Amino acid sequence: MPSLIAGVSMSALYFTAGYLLKNNMEYGIHTALATSAVLCGAGISRSLKAGFKPVPASLTVLGAVSSAYYAYKYTQFYMVYLYVHKDDKFAVKKIARRERESKKEYLDRVSKEVHLHRSLPKHHNLVDYVDFFVTRGKPYYVMEYLPGGLSISQKVPNVEYQLCLFKQLAMAVLYLQEQNVSHRDLKLANCRLTSEGVLKLIDFGSSIHGNEGVGVAGSKGMVAPEVLRDIRYDSFKSDVWSLGVVFVELLGHRTRWKEAVWYDKAFELYSRSQSVDDVSDDLANFQHIVLPMLKIDPLRRITMSELVKLPAIVEVDQCRPGNIIHSHLSGP
């Protein structure tokens, strides 16, 4: 019985990792790597107790090989170095080549991301571009070092701070659109904090000039329904939808749907009701912010310029430039 339970548990974890990886969601590689490490450890433990019989030996080999594979993938896509020069700190990102990506496609993608970021005038809610260089054929991207991250499981001190974080992100997205840029990968993982608590938007790998979006970009749990229909779409409006999902997550919740597609029953229910109760729990006090961003029809969806003029956003005056350090940052 214990072996059966262990086998079912490992299968469930690998299934979860596969689902996350397939849908380009957060923690896919992390889950797969952790599961493989547990499998390897279990195989070694069984081998020590029962001798190196075929089954535990196979588990050990399988766990070791899969751990090595996912560790390699992790270093490919998550390798960011901290570089310290005198009193300054910088983040150095190694830009990896994707599977089945030709060298030309790889270099074009890197060049596009770096050029777009470098061309943006500085903004207090966007990560600063510093430099770009190539060493031994590997491109490296130097940016401002941002020590703090955000996640849905992280407890935010209070509603004022949640709104303050959201306003900063909204101002970053508005600024990008004023520069005629669509981010197309808005999510908590792409929001970082300075040591003073200033939110900055990072990662322009999916960004484009203009608002004529084609193809799926970003994490499927975050993207707008029109993005998943394989049609041209207004990527300014799809960024607003993603911002709505981020807002729900900043409040410590998740949307009831996994993807904004019609065969997802929770999304289909929301598309019929357009009720905040079908978005997530405990959002009644924020429906005047959430629902305009999560309009199914992009033509009816609020624009960024309209969003930042909502009274609930305007009233968050502690987030204006020059007064960005919050007295409630370390509050209860």
UniProtKB/TrEMBL annotation:
Matches recorded under PROSITE patterns: PROTEIN_KINASE_DOM
Keywords: Membrane, Transmembrane, Transmembrane helix
Main location: membrane
InterPro entries according to UniProt: Kinase-like_dom_sf, Prot_kinase_dom, Ser_Thr_kinase, TMEM14, TMEM14_sf
Residue ranges of domain Protein kinase in the record: 54-313
Domain of life of the source: Eukaryota
Subcellular location(s) of the protein: Membrane
Family as reported in the entry's similarity comment: Belongs to the TMEM14 family.
Protein name stated in the entry: Protein kinase domain-containing protein
Lineage: Eukaryota, Fungi, Dikarya, Ascomycota, Saccharomycotina
